[in-house]
Each structure stands twice: as structure tokens, then as C-alpha cells.
């Protein structure tokens, strides 16, 4: 069996395990942290391994900033474009072999346009080759406590070994803002002027969410539509990471809900543990987020399934401001319509070990059958009376769905508690 066939076989095996395994069934991963304290405000499957796509470039730029601060690189230095850099697929700036570009323009091309060719130019200058730079990235990630991360390239292009998690990417983003505040402005720029062209930033959260001031988008068929966003409100900075949206519009819309929820909880002082302490021994392979019939290109060759089991939209409970807007809208609607927009949670039980909570969630999935495609299941780490417990929940249901869930579960002899949102 040649290398390509072996890779394809392993990818399909990983995809099969994801479809069958309990903890791998997360349809998306997300986390919100307070940037100053590093404490978690909200998280869903934040340690689940995921393909980072172009969120990889945050590490590429972090290491570029570190080289500048160490005096190994200057913003005005000129970099040469290699044949390898010029061959990179889109998204790209369109650099040609033998051309030169300044360090600052390469940074801007990466942060605003997610340019793969510019990322490789920086990598080759700092590492000698892209593969050597990727090894440097992985070592840097490990030194920062990014234990679920490994890198094979500087851009985030598809590779089964290019992995990270929402937790790790939040750690990285917080470190970038903390360590290099003088350079963070490159992630805030709404456009990039280059050779007579004005190129808009691909990160639309900068225009759609009033408090947002950075960071980065990412997309591959395997990862889905990813987004890191940072926002400041009332002197408080939050960092949100969302992995696995099914469209570009969905990632921006749900990130706004995620940040709203984060600001609401942080105002109440509802902080969890420091993000660095969130550890998980689950080494399940990353999900392949978009099925082959929903993603162009070599999706099947990269391990995509042929169905659409992960095509239902993400629904993150919006924060206070979004709920107030909903109430204004609902004044013109009937009581039945209001009930359909309620958010209910079904509690499935508490466990002293996470593995037992994962098993409970998997068994509930089987008991629910097709109804399991509704809402969002997850496992929450809680403390009660000094004891550490793992709670299984099913969130984002309306009242009718929640009651139907409990009816099905109780018919199978399973515990079920309804909690209105």
C-alpha cells in the first residue's frame, strides 16, 4: 500500500470512529475566556481535537512577533518568495517566485487576507523550511500548554497531523494579546493596501459585532468554518473560539451569541477554572465536519462521509442583549411562537468520573434515536459540596422537544430532569 492509500485508509477509519464514538459526536466546539484572568466563562467540548485550518496562522504570526521582539527580524526586512511559497493554493496574495515582500506586508497579508503564500514566506525565513518551522510551532505550542496541538505546516492547509482544540487556540490567542499588545493591531485592521489594491479583511466579525477588535477566520472541508474573536466591553476583554460552523454566516452569527453570553456571564462573575487547567485525556481524532456532498474539492479523499449527519445549524444560547431583542420581536407573535423560542435543558445525571458521563451521553443518544439530532449534548464539569462531578446535559431545546426527550428517555428507564432556560 502506498503512502497516499495508507493516509486515505487511516482518514476513513478515523471518520468511522467519529461516527460511532460517543465523545466524538460533538457537532462543534467552543470556548469563551476572560483574557485578563484566563478563566473560562463558557465552553462546549473545548478539549475535543479539531482541524484548526487557518487559525494555525495565529501561531505563525505569534512566532513572527517573537522573532521581531528578539531582534531576529525587522518589520521593514525584505523577504524572498520561494517556488514552494508561490505554489500555495488559495487563499493567497498571488506572490510569484523571486518576488520580494516586506515582513510587515507579509504579516498584514496573513492577518487580513489569510494568505497561505505569505505565511510560508514568513515560515521559511524563520525556520529555514516550512517543515522545520512547523516543528518549531509544535514545540512552541507544547511550551505554552497547548497539549492537544501539533502542526505540519504554517498555513493550516489540510493535513491529518495538523490538530488543535478550542482550549488550545484560546490559550494561544490570550498569549498573543498579552505578550505582544503593540502588534495586536495587525489583527484589528479592516483592510490591507497592497500594490495599489485595497483588500478587505475576511474577518467580518470586525464589522458585525460592535465590541470586536480581532482575531482570525479559518476554513477547510475538514474543519468547517472556524473563528477566533476578541472583544472588549466595559474594560473587560473576552476571547471566543468557535470551531465547526457549517457556513461563514453561521460562524459570525453564533460568535456574536457566544460573546453576548460570555459578557452576560462575566458580569455576574460566573467564571470557571483557568483555561490552562482544563485538561482532557480524550485523544479521539478530529471530526470531519462537512460531508462530501456539502463541500467541493477532494472532500471524499480527505475522509468526509457521504451523508449530512452534521448539517444541522449550531445554536448557541444568546446573551442578555440578544434575548431583549428577541422579546421586542416576539411582541408581535403569538404565545405559541414564544414557546418555540424558549431554551430548555434536559439533565441526564451526575457522575464521579467523566468516562461514566460520556457513556451516559452515548446511551441517551441511542435511546433518543432520530430525536438526538435536536439540541446540543455536552458534559459539564461541576463542583458541589466540595466534590468534583461530571454532569450530562442536553441544551437548546424548546419546551415541546424537552418534554418529548424526557418521555422517550423515561420509557427506556433513564433519568431525566427538565430545566427551563
UniProtKB/TrEMBL annotation:
SUPFAM superfamilies: beta-lactamase/transpeptidase-like. This is D-alanyl-D-alanine carboxypeptidase. Residues 29-246 form the Peptidase S11 D-alanyl-D-alanine carboxypeptidase A N-terminal domain. Residues 1-26 form the signal peptide. It comes from the Bacteria. It holds the Pfam family Peptidase_S11. Belongs to the peptidase S11 family. Coiled coil: none annotated. GO terms for molecular function: carboxypeptidase activity. It comes from Methylomonas rivi. Keywords: Carboxypeptidase, Cell shape, Cell wall biogenesis/degradation, Hydrolase, Peptidoglycan synthesis, Protease, Signal. InterPro entries: Beta-lactam/transpept-like (IPR012338), Peptidase_S11 (IPR018044), Peptidase_S11_N (IPR001967). The keyword Cell wall biogenesis/degradation applies.
Amino acid at each position: 500500500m502506498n503512502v497516499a492509500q495508507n493516509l486515505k485508509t487511516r482518514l476513513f477509519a478515523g471518520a468511522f470512529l467519529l461516527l460511532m464514538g460517543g465523545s466524538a459526536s460533538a457537532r462543534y466546539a467552543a470556548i469563551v475566556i476572560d483574557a485578563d484572568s484566563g478563566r473560562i466563562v463558557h465552553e462546549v467540548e473545548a478539549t475535543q481535537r479539531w482541524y484548526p485550518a487557518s487559525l494555525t496562522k495565529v501561531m505563525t504570526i505569534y512566532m513572527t512577533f517573537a522573532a521581531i521582539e528578539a531582534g531576529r527580524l525587522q518589520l521593514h526586512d525584505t523577504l524572498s518568495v520561494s517556488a514552494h511559497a508561490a505554489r500555495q493554493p488559495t487563499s493567497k496574495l498571488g506572490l510569484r517566485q523571486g518576488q520580494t515582500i516586506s515582513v510587515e506586508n507579509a504579516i498584514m497579508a496573513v492577518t487580513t487576507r489569510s494568505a497561505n503564500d505569505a505565511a510560508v514566506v514568513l515560515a521559511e525565513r524563520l525556520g529555514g523550511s516550512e517543515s522545520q518551522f512547523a516543528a518549531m510551532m509544535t514545540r512552541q505550542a507544547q511550551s505554552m500548554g497547548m497539549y492537544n496541538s501539533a502542526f505540519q505546516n504554517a498555513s493550516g492547509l489540510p493535513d491529518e497531523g495538523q490538530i488543535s482544540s478550542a482550549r488550545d487556540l484560546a490559550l494561544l490567542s490570550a498569549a498573543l494579546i498579552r505578550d505582544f499588545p503593540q502588534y495586536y493591531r495587525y489583527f484589528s485592521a479592516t483592510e490591507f493596501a497592497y500594490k495599489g489594491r485595497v483588500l478587505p479583511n475576511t474577518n467580518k466579525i470586525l464589522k458585525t459585532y460592535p465590541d470586536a477588535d480581532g482575531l482570525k477566520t479559518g476554513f477547510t472541508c475538514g474543519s468547517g468554518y472556524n473563528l477566533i474573536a476578541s472583544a472588549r466591553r466595559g474594560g473587560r476583554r473576552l476571547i471566543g473560539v468557535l470551531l465547526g460552523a457549517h457556513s461563514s454566516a453561521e460562524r459570525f452569527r453564533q460568535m456574536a451569541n457566544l460573546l453576548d453570553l460570555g459578557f452576560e456571564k462575566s458580569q455576574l462573575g460566573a467564571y470557571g477554572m483557568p483555561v490552562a487547567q482544563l485538561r482532557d485525556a480524550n485523544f479521539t481524532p478530529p471530526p470531519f465536519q462537512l460531508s462530501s456532498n456539502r463541500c467541493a474539492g477532494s472532500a471524499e479523499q480527505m475522509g468526509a462521509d457521504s451523508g449530512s449527519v452534521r448539517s444541522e445549524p449550531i445554536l448557541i444560547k444568546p446573551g442578555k442583549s440578544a434575548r431583549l431583542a428577541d422579546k421586542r420581536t416576539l411582541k408581535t407573535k403569538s404565545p405559541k411562537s414564544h414557546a418555540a423560542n424558549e431554551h430548555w435543558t434536559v439533565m441526564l445525571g451526575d457522575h464521579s468520573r467523566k468516562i461514566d458521563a460520556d457513556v451516559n451521553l452515548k446511551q441517551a443518544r441511542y435511546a433518543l434515536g432520530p430525536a438526538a439530532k435536536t439540541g446540543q449534548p455536552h458534559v459539564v464539569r461541576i463542583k458541589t459540596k466540595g466534590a468534583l462531578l461530571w454532569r450530562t446535559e442536553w441544551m437548546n431545546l424548546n419546551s415541546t422537544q424537552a418534554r418529548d426527550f424526557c418521555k422517550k428517555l423515561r420509557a427506556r428507564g433513564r433519568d431525566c430532569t427538565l430545566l427551563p432556560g
